[in-house]
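in:
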């Protein structure tokens, strides 16, 4: 096998091709005000009648491609004289251009794109925008008793800026058929290589009374790189989430998994943006006022762009173009352009007809860039009465059974924007790649790396069994010592209703085998994974393994090698033998229920002992509990990405309400009767350009008299890896309560402060502040220090005769604060955590650093 070729193919698959020179030579320069010598931002720099041009950045700099026959650039901006500058192609590398103010200015307002003293009071552009905002009719359509429309969307992902030099070297030389897939981008005019195309044809229906919405997906078609992965819907879901549909009438625009201030936001637009009236012109034969807008601070999460507003009393936006400032705090996005166009229907309604987006992405220098183009068309708006049966069922989105089996005639009818020649041949490209020697090995490695599982079948055969998670194969803890684990699970290709999974593990220190076996029956047919939303599953599980008490609070597998490194000694552990039977039901509206029956045999080990609270101190070898738990959860609007290891929430915007009650019984081997009630509320609040604030409130009560393993312990995280919603500096079993209430506040500022500090703002660092507080109490009935001789209670844990568990003072909450610097090298998050109370407990960490690796825009 040619190792060099394998490496080249791998580079293509993970989209990390080495950068080369640009497609054409570039000429760079700076544009300055002729009088003040100040740099001029947002100046148009272009070749006349060539369709190639750029805009200067906030420092007046520009870089535009040139060719041997192009020798004249045009510099133009409202308020300045247009200037044409000749140069010598191939020799001239830098231009310094001075623009003079124009003597002719619009009657509406004086336009000065230079660094001026911008003011809002008596500014005609601001006065106009206030009228636009006051007259916007975001929900005008929903005043109709009924309406519907058709929607077509295409998302194309391509390798970007494929230069002639690249096509003669490296992987293009080894795989010459790749050259046949290269085409010119119709938007950027750069050479691109499409590697993925997803199309969706759907219909949207609305009823006012009772209010109901329904989206029916009539066609879905996907070709390209995502099809090589069994969980291929990940790519489609991520692209649709990151490059989501835009609605400028929303105050905050959700895009790139964050929030941007809309240029017509009712709450923030006037204070966030600078507005300029540029001209009066015709758009679709209608007289419109052309406004430009730029953020007050180019590093903030906002847009530059243009609004075209009807020159009448309606102040209707008929067209909007937006792009990201070059200095924005967004990661990996070199360029992003958005186009929205509105049209007026025969009934007078103004509706969206075009929503297009193009993003040029670059992970880092030396890596191949990507282009993502999303094209959306809205057509066939109708307002007649809709049949009532259309809105039956709770699901807001329904996929037709034949949606993935549509033929060419269907797509030829639904496509409002035709596929390009190379988009049409993406599937042929993938087949050629698949037949390349060594490709299957590379796919095997790529799947294992991306999905954390190893498949046992080739791409052209249904994969029935996955081996993994890979990151749990090697581990270490106090009881096991060095630990090896082998895990596997079946997929829907084995059976779409029955799913089997399990693992075996061995600890070289305690010389014991651990294991788990689980069978899950999905009442609804699944495409690949049992956990696919919405669940309607019955699960039976039997497990024997060693756990620390805080393992149950981890958001990942306890055997994940990365959380195995602890900040303190974790030697109080238990061997748990669990049998559970559960039924879980989720609905499309976000309401879910869980009913679970469980029997647990708990055998303390390590430095943990169960000793009865009597003068004799009788040792308890194990305790047996049997309980039934019922949980309800409501998270409206919550959506997920399915991975082989777990479901990942697409967005944290949905409020989450959770309530559960656990009933312990003296039956089926159980030794204790108890009642445990817990509830929580989570909500994220977006603060416009000031980032987002997450609130989590939890509370719980253990109603009955129980030994300490059945009391409530704080959700502690003892690893160096940041875990949302856990306390970072509370030790294992440090506090034991039968009443508790906790508050978790997490504030991400998205660089709002750092972006205003010279030099520092270039690093695109982002601030994070956190505060966690726990109120807890222990009633006398569960306090072993109050009852000197009560055999129903256990003594609180100790280590070498020293107390390690405590009763909280109800008037003295535990508190910790966090200050984080996130987005270091666009990858690393570092949090400094400080403990504010209960500082006299021995063996605690009063402060510490926590880390997380996370790629985010």
């Amino acid at each position: 096998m040619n190792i060099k070729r394998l490496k080249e193919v791998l580079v293509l698959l993970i989209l990390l091709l080495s950068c080369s020179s640009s497609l054409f030579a570039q000429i760079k320069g700076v544009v300055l005000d002729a009088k003040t010598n100040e740099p001029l931002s947002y100046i148009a720099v272009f070749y006349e009648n060539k369709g190639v041009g750029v805009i200067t950045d906030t420092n007046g700099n520009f870089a535009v491609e040139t060719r041997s026959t192009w020798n004249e650039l045009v510099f133009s901006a409202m308020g300045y004289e247009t200037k044409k500058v000749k140069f010598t192609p191939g020799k001239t590398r830098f231009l310094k251009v001075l623009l003079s103010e124009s003597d002719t200015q619009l009657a509406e307002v004086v336009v000065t794109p230079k660094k001026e003293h911008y003011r809002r009071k008596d500014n005609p552009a601001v006065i106009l925008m206030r009228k636009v905002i006051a007259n916007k009719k975001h929900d005008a359509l929903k005043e109709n008793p009924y309406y519907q429309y058709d929607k077509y969307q295409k998302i194309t992902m391509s390798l970007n800026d494929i230069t002639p030099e690249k096509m003669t070297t490296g992987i293009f030389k080894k795989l010459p058929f790749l050259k046949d897939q290269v085409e010119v981008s119709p938007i950027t005019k750069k050479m691109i290589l499409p590697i993925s195309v997803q199309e969706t044809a759907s219909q949207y229906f609305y009823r006012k009374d009772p209010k109901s919405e329904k989206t029916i997906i009539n066609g879905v078609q996907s070709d390209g790189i995502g099809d090589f992965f069994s969980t291929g819907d990940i790519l489609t879901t991520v692209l649709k989430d990151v490059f989501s549909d835009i609605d400028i009438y929303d105050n905050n625009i959700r895009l790139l998994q964050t929030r941007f201030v809309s240029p017509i936001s009712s709450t923030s637009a006037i204070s966030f943006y600078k507005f300029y009236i540029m001209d009066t012109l015709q758009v679709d034969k209608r007289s419109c006022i052309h406004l430009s807008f730029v953020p007050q601070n180019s590093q903030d999460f906002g847009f530059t762009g243009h609004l075209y507003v009807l020159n009448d009393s309606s102040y209707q936006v008929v067209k909007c173009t937006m792009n990201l400032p070059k200095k924005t705090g967004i990661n990996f996005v070199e360029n992003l352009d958005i186009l929205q166009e509105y049209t007026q229907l025969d009934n007078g309604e103004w509706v969206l007809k075009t929503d297009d987006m193009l993003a040029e992405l670059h992970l880092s220098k030396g890596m191949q860039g990507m282009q993502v183009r999303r094209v959306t068309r809205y057509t066939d708006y109708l307002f007649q009465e809709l049949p009532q049966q259309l809105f039956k069922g709770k699901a807001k989105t329904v996929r037709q059974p034949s949606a993935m089996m549509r033929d060419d005639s269907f797509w030829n009818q639904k496509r409002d924007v035709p596929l390009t020649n190379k988009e049409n041949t993406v599937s042929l490209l993938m087949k050629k790649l698949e037949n390349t020697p060594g490709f299957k090995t590379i796919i095997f490695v790529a799947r294992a790396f991306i999905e954390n599982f190893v498949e046992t079948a080739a791409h052209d055969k249904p994969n029935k069994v996955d081996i993994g998670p890979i990151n749990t194969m090697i581990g270490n803890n106090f009881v096991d010592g060095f630990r090896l684990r082998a895990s596997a699970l079946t997929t829907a290709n084995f059976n779409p209703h029955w799913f089997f999974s399990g693992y075996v593990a061995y600890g070289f220190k305690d010389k014991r085998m651990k294991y788990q076996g689980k069978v899950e029956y999905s009442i609804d047919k699944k495409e690949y994974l049992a956990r696919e939303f919405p669940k309607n599953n019955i699960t039976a599980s039997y497990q024997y393994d060693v756990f620390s008490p805080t393992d149950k609070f981890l958001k990942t597998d306890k055997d994940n090698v990365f959380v195995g490194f602890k900040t303190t000694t974790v030697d109080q552990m238990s061997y748990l033998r669990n049998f559970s039977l559960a039924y879980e039901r989720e609905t499309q509206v976000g309401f879910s229920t869980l009913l679970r029956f469980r029997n647990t045999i708990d055998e303390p080990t390590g430095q943990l002992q169960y000793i009865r609270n009597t003068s004799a101190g009788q040792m308890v070898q194990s305790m047996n509990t049997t309980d039934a738990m019922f949980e309800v959860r409501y998270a409206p609007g919550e959506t997920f990405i399915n991975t082989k290891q777990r479901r990942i929430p697409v967005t944290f915007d949905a409020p989450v309400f959770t309530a559960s009650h656990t009933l312990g019984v003296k039956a089926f081997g159980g030794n204790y009767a108890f009642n445990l009630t817990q509830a929580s509320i989570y909500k994220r609040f977006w603060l416009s350009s000031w980032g987002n604030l997450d609130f989590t409130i939890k509370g719980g009560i253990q109603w009955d008299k129980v030994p300490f393993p059945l009391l409530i312990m704080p959700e502690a995280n003892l690893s160096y890896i940041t875990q949302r919603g856990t306390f970072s500096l509370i030790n294992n079993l440090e506090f034991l309560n039968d009443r508790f209430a906790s508050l978790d506040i997490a504030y991400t500022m998205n660089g709002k402060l750092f972006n205003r500090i010279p030099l520092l703002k270039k690093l695109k660092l982002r601030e994070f502040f956190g505060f966690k507080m726990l109120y807890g109490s222990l009633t006398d009935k569960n306090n072993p220090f109050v009852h000197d001789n009560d055999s129903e209670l256990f003594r609180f844990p100790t280590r070498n005769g020293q107390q390690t568990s405590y009763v909280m003072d109800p008037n003295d909450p535990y508190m910790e604060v966090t200050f984080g610097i996130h987005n270091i090298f666009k990858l690393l998050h570092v949090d400094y955590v400080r403990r504010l109370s209960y500082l006299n407990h021995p063996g605690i960490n009063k402060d510490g650093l926590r880390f997380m690796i996370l790629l985010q825009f």
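note: Residues 13-134 form a domain with the Immunoglobulin-like fold (CATH 2.60.40.1120).
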